[in-house]
Structure formats: C-alpha cells, structure tokens
User: What shape does this take?
Amino acid sequence: MLPELETIQQEGLDSLGKLQNEVELENWRIMYLGRSSQLMGVFDQLGTLPKEERPQIGRRANQIKQELEAAFQQKSEALRLVSIERSLLADRLDVTLPGRSPTHGRLHPATQTLRLLYRIFAEMGFQIYLSREVETDELNFQLLNFPPYHPAREMQDTFFVKSKVDRGDNPLLMRTHTSPGQIRAMREYTARNPKDPPPVRIITPGMCYRYEQVTARAEMQFNQIEGLAVGHDITFGDLKGTLSDFARRMFGQNVRSRFRASHFPFTEPSAEMDIECFVCRGEGCSVCKRTGWLEILGCGMVHPVVLENGGYDPERFTGFAFGVGPERIAMLRHRINDIRNFWANDMRFLEQF
Ligand code: DAH
Assistant: This one.
C-alpha cells in the first residue's frame, strides 16, 4: 500500500500545480481530499490491514494528507490573488466611472510678474539679455563704481564663493543685483564694433542673492530686472518718459509717478521712482504706510565711469538704467504681505495665482 500512497501524493501535487481557476481547484479538492478520494479510501481500509503494517501506513497517509492540504491552501491563496488582480484590471476599464481630473500646473507668481514685465519692456523695444548668477567682485562691484572697501557695499550683504586659487580683491560671489549685466552687455556690444558701438536697449532678468536676515520684507534670494539704454543724446527726460510709461502699462493708464533723488554708485544722478498708491489713490492707507506713494524701482543716468568700463565713450554716449524687483511688484499687485511666501513652496499660497 505504501507505493500507492506515494503515487497519490506525486500525482496530487503535479496536477495541483497546473490548476488555472477556482472551479478546477474545487474539483481537485474533491478528487484528492474528498470523502470518496483514494486517500480517504486508504484510511477506510486501515482496519483490514495486518496489525504490523497499520501504524506505518497510517502515519504516512496522515503526512500525505497534511501535505496535500497545505499545498491546497497555498494554491487557493495564489488563485485568489490572481483573481483580485484580474478584477482590478477589469475595473480600470469601467467606462462608467467618472474620469480622474488632471491637476493643472501653473506659473509661479514671480514668473508671472517677470513675464508681464518682459512683455511691457519688449513692447518698448527692450531685448532680454541673460547674465550670470555667479559673478566676480570686479563685475558685481568694482566696475560699477564700488571700489574694494567702499561703504556703499554695505547696502548689499554678499555670499562669497570659495575658489581654489586666492583671487585677492576679486573674489567670486553670488551676484547681489543684476547690475553687473550692464557691464557684460555693454562689453559684448562694443566688441562687435569698437569704433562705432551699437545702441543698447536691454533688460536683464534673474535671481540675485544677499546674505540677509530673512524677514517678511527681506529674502536672501529674489529676482531683479535691470534695464539699460545707451545711445546718443539719451537724457533724463527719456528715463522719466520710459519709466512713467512702464508704470502706466503695469498699474493702469491713470497712475501717477514721481521721482525722488537718491544715490547709487553706478548712476549719476540717481533716483527712486514711486507710483501713487493704487489702493487708496494717494489718500494714505496701510499699504503705502500713509504716504500715498509706493516705491517701485531705482534708476538713474549711467555713470560716465560705468559707460567707460563697458567700452562706451562717455563723451559721445549717454544712457539710463533702472532696477526693479518683480517680487516687490507682485506683492503690491496682489497685496502679499510676506516675501518669504515666494520660495516657501507652500501650495496653499501658490495655488492662488
Ligand atoms: N542695483 C540696485 C540694487 O540692487 C538697483 C538699481 C538701482 C539698478 C538703480 C539700477 C539703477 O540700474 O539705475 O539695489
């Protein structure tokens, strides 16, 4: 009887491996473990066996029963998983389910403002000129009329970049403003035709970095847009005309602007431009801190030394420049009261734009 048992086990396990579904599995169970299966027949016959054989056959029959039952459980679980997977696949094709709505990406509020500025200045004939974010001290400061140790540097706390060689008074740094783009652009233009260099009408947008204590009003990274116009007979009148027109295009046809004297080492004379507060129309409110005016940019006539550093003869050429902070403009337009929102990556903030 022992060889018979081994055959039952062998065939049982072999055929179990080939089963494809739960119906076949149930048939298998009846055939190998059911009441009238061969294996159960062995148990029935035990009593008719010689006494000495009974324990051995009985033990082996029990082992095989347990093994077949365990294999059955395993197979049953495997088939169950397959059928779950199939039904999930089928669900995916359920055309009656509502579709999953895709989430739309959108532009960052700073990018939106940058693009608005690009459009306005493009309409006025300014090209975009991209300059680098890692600069030399020379470009970021010295050629813009901030000599080493000049106190005006104190306005621009600076991140210096370590370099392998000692660069002395000309270390590498993260640009603190977009103004070094003025020098790069002028040099590129004068290289094209040193004797009679072409006029410049550019804006240079991009990130600037300052080693600032971060507060609601100051970030250590922010965008700027620098503007530069160089040519023959450019006057302060051109500067005022261009920037007042910019303000009207940006904030509305009736917005008034004013220029206040200021100081920047790279412009002479220098000014800051305010627009009439568009919240209170000049009456005085919390947005304009009761002054009726909002400061929006710095500007001035390009300093002769800076023109010369760019390769333009200050006897023959004049120019104006300005620097705008797009985040500041966005803050004014959308009444955002904390500049840290721009780079905190909080979706609740970003999704509002
Ligand atoms: N570079 C100045 C700053 O970051 C901003 C500025 C002021 C730029 C006057 C100009 C300008 O071109 O004419 O503080």
